[in-house]
Amino acid sequence: MKIFVTGASGHIGSAVVPLLQAAGHDVLGLARSDASAAALEGRGVDVLRADLADLDALRGAAAGSDGVVHLAFVHDFTDFDGAAATDRAAVEAMSSALVGTGRPFVCASGTPVIPGRVATEEDLPAVGGSLGARAETGRALLALADQGVRSSLVGLPRTVHDDHGNGGFAAGLAAMARRSGVSGYVGDGTARWPAVHVDDAAAAFVVALERAPGGSVLHAVGEEGVTLLDTATAIGRALDVPVRPVEPEQLGFLGSLAGIDQPASAALTRERYGWEPGGRGLLESLAGLARA
Prior knowledge:
Blueprint: E1 2-6, H1 13-22, E2 26-31, H2 34-42, E3 46-49, H3 55-63, E4 67-70, H4 80-96, E5 104-110, H5 132-143, E6 150-156, E7 159-161, H6 168-180, E8 183-185, E9 192-197, H7 198-211, E10 216-219, E11 223-227, H8 228-239, E12 243-245, H9 255-258, H10 267-273, H11 282-286
Parallel strand pairs: 1-2, 1-4, 2-3, 4-5, 5-6, 6-10, 7-9, 8-12
Antiparallel strand pairs: 9-11
């Protein structure tokens, strides 16, 4: 199949694209910069030079493809509402080209926060609140299954990391530790965040593309919940900085999330699709953080 991938040169996309190619798919990758375009072309990927605001280009690329994997998102946490609106318009443009075709449309999402228990694939992200707009987009995408789109969401943990601790919210905490000289956590540090290795996350997107029925939710979760204290301790050890409790505002946009327990499970994804994460765990990966 010819698969249109947004975010193809990004952290997760760079792992998804080789897996798609290894599975025999041709890839058309969205690139908004010359550097991204060159990187994709070097991997044998056809390139569409555009961005998420170019709705006609997105619609045309989706129409000319056998499926879509949507990974791109404008990560501007100073204007999350604007970023979510851009994403919603992009999803609507691409999905409009797939209505009635039975083709797959796989979209990145986040694992939901369910107070008092571990979130599962049966739990949809809650609408309302600061992240509600993106959750509404995900629900709208799933509903397209009734319009002949094989739509699915892949719920990603707070941290999608590589072997060296790069990627996701844990990497954000590490960046703050480098700047401040302190590896911080909020409260007693017992809040848990799920995590997954980027290669395992990429495999979940390929599974969804090839096999998930319309209206499906998968979770790409390797570890159900790593405590913020353990995460901060691993960062402190790797960067040789002290580990201390801090006020939420000292962690920037992550501060409002750092005290929220939000574990998530991928048990149903493993059972239904045989997806088995095997990548390095978060704490082991954080040991490889560069100090510079």
